Amino acid sequence: QVYVVFSKELKCWCRALVESVCCQADGYKLGCFLVDYAKYCSVALENIRVLAGAFAKIPHRAKKCRLHCTKPLTLHIDYCENTAKIGPAKRWDTAAIQHFRKLLE
């Protein structure tokens, strides 16, 4: 379900999908994906609202997607043996993400 959340970074109300809920000392925080900006953000529970009927039917501008059969790689450095090898990684490196964005532009 799509909700409306207030993004402090963008300083406006945005449509979002709630992906996670985290309990912290100062209250609940929601991990959200902003469907019109393709950004992830953390929002306090008091900054979420139910989306009004007509606005829920507007298509999203951003879609989550993955590259088919593309796995993240990283450089593994062994300081003891003084070697470096490229191998599998759990997440994409920041440099790889920036390089991919430049290729898209």
UniProtKB/TrEMBL annotation:
Keyword S-adenosyl-L-methionine carried by entry: no
Keyword Nucleotide-binding: yes
Gene Ontology MF, one: hydrolase activity
Keywords for this protein: ATP-binding, Helicase, Hydrolase, Nucleotide-binding, Repeat
One GO-annotated biological process of the protein: germ-line stem cell division
Top EC class for this record: hydrolase
One Pfam family linked to the record: TUDOR
Catalytic activity field: ATP + H2O = ADP + phosphate + H(+)
Residues of the Tudor domain: 3-68
Name the UniProt record assigns to this protein: RNA helicase
Record organism: Irena cyanogastra (Philippine fairy-bluebird)
